[in-house]
Amino acid sequence: MKHYGIMGGTFNPIHLGHLMISEYIRDEIKLDKIIFVPTGNPPHKSDLLDAEIRYEMTKMAIEDNENFMVSDIETKRQGISYTVDTVNQLSEELDAKLYFIIGSDTLFQLKTWKRFDELAKQIEFICAIRPEYMATKILSSELIYLNQKFDARIKIIKTPQYMISSTDLRNRIKYGKSLKYLLPDKLIEYIYERRLYI
Question: Do the domain assignments include residue 170?
Answer without folding.
Answer: no
